[in-house]
Design brief:
The complex is a heterodimer of chains A (158) and B (597). Helices cover 37% and strands 23% of the residues of chain A. With 158 residues, chain A is α/β, with parallel strands linked by helices. In chain A, the strands form two sheets. Chain A has a four-stranded parallel sheet with strand order 1-4-5-6, sandwiched between helices. Chain A has a two-stranded antiparallel ribbon with strand order 2-3. By secondary structure, chain B is α+β, with helices and mostly antiparallel strands. Chain B folds into five domains: 58 residues; 144 residues, 2-Layer Sandwich (Beta-Lactamase), CATH 3.30.450; 82 residues, GMP Synthetase, Chain A, domain 3 (2-Layer Sandwich), CATH 3.30.300; 63 residues, Histidine-containing Protein, Chain: A (2-Layer Sandwich), CATH 3.30.1340; 118 residues, 2-Layer Sandwich (60s Ribosomal Protein L30, Chain: A). Helix content of chain B is 55%, strand content 18%. In chain B, a hairpin with a 2-residue loop joins strand 3 and strand 4. Chain B is rod-shaped and about 235 Å long. The termini of chain B are far apart. The N terminus of chain B is likely disordered. The chains are: A alpha/beta (158), B alpha+beta (597). Chains A and B meet through strand 2 and strand 3 of A and helix 8 of B.
Chain lengths: 158, 597
């Protein structure tokens, strides 16, 4: 799980799986790990989700956590445009480090329609550059599972 | 092969060169033609070979590649030229290789380096163990002695036995983790140990290592190798492609770490290809279970026995506490007993104290007996014996001890002797020495009999001062002589003053005598010289005595009883040898009798 600060990565993971790890560790280490067994392309896939602490702005990403990742979710907060730029920056460093591994862009917080700060053209730009984009709400659960499953499928194909 | 072919070529060349010298020239052309037809192609080949042989550089790589291994082997057998020639190249190659991708070299060296380093460490440790042996040699605690006996019995070194007893541990879980992805490859658990989701634990362990590595500026190659949480520790061993993490309860010895390293190296060797090509499927690592299980049980059996033996249970804690309490109470009991015994001994040795009953009670003591009021105070002695007076119930009956010391003290107190008198007590007798007045002596004679422990008063060395004074005057009186004129009852001239002196002395004696408990009787005795007959002398002496008695009676009045008698010449004042003696014998003397009044 990659993305800016407070975009809802942890909430997405929570929505997706039931965690056995407490939040206490999250604040200490900066990473929280969850697991979920899913079906993708007719085979069982054990997803180990590294929920990495959000990085604000374009400051350096904790790259060591990325090492060995088979894919990632890039999370954007639909109510804060700045998180889109952060996501783009993160995507760039992740690609440098991991090479071409599958990833999904998730624009979160669709439940907060009133505060929406992302214009459609920007989203269209992302789709045009070949990125898979999901609009989700960790609160309502909208499209959360779909996003994770799509990533799982992409990873098994890769 | 190539060498042989080259030899063949040389031979054919010499043949070709010798041929044109043949005399048969016509035949020669035909022959040449025939030769060209027959061996033309070979000749061409020979030409090519010749050219190549003329220029050594033109040797083809293929040729060298065919002979290179053999050539190097041959040359190496002969001398070290090849090694010397290759050295800079190899060094540079390694250098470049390390710069480019150190992983390759690490992979290659890992199985070699591990054992070598382990061996070096083991040697260092054995040196340390010996030092430890020495330092422990003098420890003579009961436990130490027990361990020493065990070491002697089992033939192990003492330090080893100590380690066995002090290091109690159990490896509860072992994780084999893919280093790059942090994914779990294999996981084994010891018996009943409680387990969390191994996949996530594996991920967390990897994340923690990353976190530590990122957060603290550790040197290259440095990494987290131990996590400690209470009695639980996680030992992490790192290989080039995989990580081994062991969850250990208790104190594991360093040998275990060596064993983990060894296991990891073994896994690297066994699964080198699988590790390199790992893409998320852990199934190929199933056979590594056996290796990991060896880690679980390696030194667990020895430890577990000790563990159950030494486990701290509430019962043990209570038992230990009870033991401490019993020891403390025992100490106080023994101490108080000892003090009490001392106290009783002390009292028994004290004169004037008789113990009739002494006993210890639950929370104190009771003592009863007899005590002379003059004896030492038992309450004061309690303090000296460090006993709390409040805890001792004493009951003392007063009595009189007949110990001479107390008898003497009692006599002193009761008789109140003047400072001129000293007492001594022996065989129930009070001996008094010195001088005292008559009244005190009389009193003492009476009182001695009522003092316990005394039944006699010895005053042989005691002077009655009053009696002494009376006797002195008495003696003075009896030495006085009132002289008379020859053959008459008339006083010799000047004898009036002698009469006066007699009068004064008698008055003094009369005064002193009552204080000495005496009354006096004064006897005036007349004397004559030896001239004349008895018949005349006796009456004369009686008349003379009567004269003096009358004179004294006139002076003294009737307070003093005076008698007069004549002794004639029978008891002269002096032995009569001269006229002077005769004069002295014509006289009157006075005798005083003191009688108890």
């Amino acid at each position: 799980m990659l993305g800016g600060f407070a975009v809802g990565k942890t909430s997405l993971v929570r929505q997706f799986v039931e965690s056995i790890y407490s939040d206490k560790y999250h604040t200490t280490v900066g990473v929280k790990i969850d697991k979920k067994l899913v079906q993708a392309n007719g085979q069982e896939v054990n997803l180990l989700l590294w929920d990495i602490q959000g990085e604000d702005g374009v400051q350096k990403l904790r790259t060591s956590y990325l090492r060995g990742a088979a894919g990632y979710l890039l999370v954007i907060d639909g109510t804060r445009r700045s998180t889109l730029d952060t996501a783009c920056a993160i995507q760039q460093s992740a690609q440098e480090l991991l090479g071409l591994v599958p990833f999904i862009v998730v624009i979160n917080k669709t439940d907060l329609v009133d505060e929406w700060d992302l214009d459609e053209s920007a989203v269209a730009g992302l789709v045009q550059s070949g990125w898979t984009v999901y609009r989700t709400s960790a609160k309502t659960g909208q499209d959360v599972e779909e996003a994770f499953l799509t990533l799982a499928e992409k990873m098994t194909e890769a | 092969m190539l060498t042989q072919r080259r030899k063949g070529a040389k031979e054919s060349r010499t043949k070709l060169k010798s041929n044109p010298s043949s005399p048969d020239v016509i035949e020669q052309d035909g022959l040449n033609e025939l030769r060209r037809l027959l061996v033309g192609p070979e000749q061409q080949e020979i030409e090519v070979l010749r050219e190549r042989l003329d220029q050594q550089e033109s040797l083809l790589p293929e040729d060298i590649s065919r002979v290179l291994p053999e050539a190097v082997t041959l040359r190496t057998r002969r001398d070290k030229k090849v090694t010397e020639a290759l050295l800079p190249t190899v060094e540079e190659a390694i250098d470049i290789s390390v710069r480019k991708n150190p992983q390759t070299l690490i992979d290659a060296l890992f199985p070699v380096m591990g054992p070598a380093i382990r061996k070096a460490i083991a040697e260092a440790l054995s040196g340390m163990t010996q030092a430890m042996n020495k330092s422990l040699e003098h420890s003579l605690s009961p436990q130490g002695l027990k361990w020493r006996v065990e070491a002697w019995r089992t033939g192990r070194s003492f330090a080893e036995v100590v380690m066995l007893h002090t290091l109690l541990y159990r490896v509860e879980q072992v994780f084999l983790i893919h280093k790059e992805t942090g994914l779990l490859l294999q996981h084994v658990v010891a018996g009943d140990a409680s387990v969390q989701d191994a996949d996530m634990v594996s991920g967390m362990l990897t994340a923690i290592q990353d976190f530590v590595h990122d957060s603290f500026s550790v040197e290259e190659g440095g990494a987290l190798d131990t996590l400690q949480v209470g009695g639980l520790s996680v030992w992490i061993e790192r290989g080039p492609r995989a990580v081994l993490a062991a969850v250990i309860r208790g104190n594991a010895p360093q040998e275990l770490r060596a064993f983990l390293q060894q296991t990891l190296e073994q896994i690297h060797a066994e699964f080198a290809r699988e590790l390199e090509n790992f893409e998320g499927d852990a199934a190929p690592f199933e056979p590594s279970r056996e290796d990991l299980e060896a880690c679980l049980q390696s030194q667990y059996e020895q430890g577990s026995k000790e563990k159950t033996k030494k486990r701290v249970t509430p019962v043990r804690v209570v038992a230990a506490l009870l033991l401490v309490i019993v020891l403390v109470l025992g100490f106080f009991y023994v101490r108080s007993r000892w003090r009490w015994g001392n106290y009783l001994t002390r009292l028994q040795s004290e004169p004037g104290i008789v113990i009739t009953n002494a006993e210890r009670r639950w929370f104190g003591y009771s003592i009863a007996g007899l005590r002379d009021p003059m004896a030492a105070d038992p309450q004061a002695l309690l303090g000296e014996a460090s006993l709390d007076p409040a805890k001792v119930e004493s009951h003392w009956e007063p009595y009189h001890s007949l110990t001479p010391r107390f008898v003497l003290q009692r006599a002193q107190a009761l008789l109140n002797p003047p400072p001129t008198v000293t007492f001594r007590v022996e065989n129930n007798t009070l001996y008094a020495t010195g001088s005292a007045n008559h009244q005190w002596i009389t009193e003492t004679r009476r009182l001695v009999r009522v003092i316990p422990g005394l039944d006699r008063f010895d005053e042989s060395s005691l002077v009655d001062t009053n009696l002494q004074a009376a006797l002195n005057v008495k003696s003075r009186i009896e030495h006085r002589v009132v002289r008379f004129v020859l053959d008459t009852t008339g006083l010799a001239p000047g004898q009036g003053s002698e009469l006066e002196a007699l009068n004064a002395d008698i008055r003094e004696l009369k005064r002193l005598a009552p204080a000495a408990g005496k009354s006096i009787r004064v006897e005036v005795i007349g004397h004559t010289d030896q001239l004349g007959s008895e018949e005349t002398n006796l009456p004369l002496s009686r008349e003379r005595a009567e004269v003096v008695r009358a004179r004294l009676a006139a002076l003294l009045g009737d307070e003093v009883e005076l008698t007069a008698s004549g002794a004639g010449a029978a008891s002269p004042v002096r032995e009569e040898r001269s006229e002077e003696d005769k004069e002295a014998n014509r006289s009157v003397t006075v005798r005083v009798t003191l009688t108890d009044s």
